[in-house]
Amino acid sequence: MMEAKPKSREIKTAHLIAYSSVIIVILSAIHLFLVLDDSVIKQMLMNSGQQASENAVGTIKSSFQFTGIMYLLANLAGVLAIWNRHTYLWWFMFAVFASQILYNLINIGAVFNAVLDVKSGINLVPLTVVLVMSFILAVYMLIVSLKRKSTFNR
Hints:
6 helices, Membrane spanning protein, transmembrane, membrane, single chain, transmembrane helix, 0% strand, mainly alpha
């Protein structure tokens, strides 16, 4: 009977990570491909006093999208937690959540200001939720690993 409870906790934790990863992927994709359009990138450049040439807009947009796609794929790896609750997956997902926060915080002011200048405030929701969820998950995973002295309660 003692085995059932830890297994249940392990599975619940894995499902939390997996389903949260899917939500993060969906919201990140909305941010990358719907919110960060040419008008937002152009506004970012103008806000920073740069010339908003077509080439500059395309280069910056491609850079955001390329890096964003890498994070989409990395977050999708979290779905594996449904079937495979390996320690390496735990720490990989922790690293994804933590680095995603740091990467997005670099340009957060410029991105948010440009979005607010060109679009409505509702367009800030996807990235904001991604950052909040990533932070909560990273902190949760760190606390669980320290408290249980393990990952996925193993």
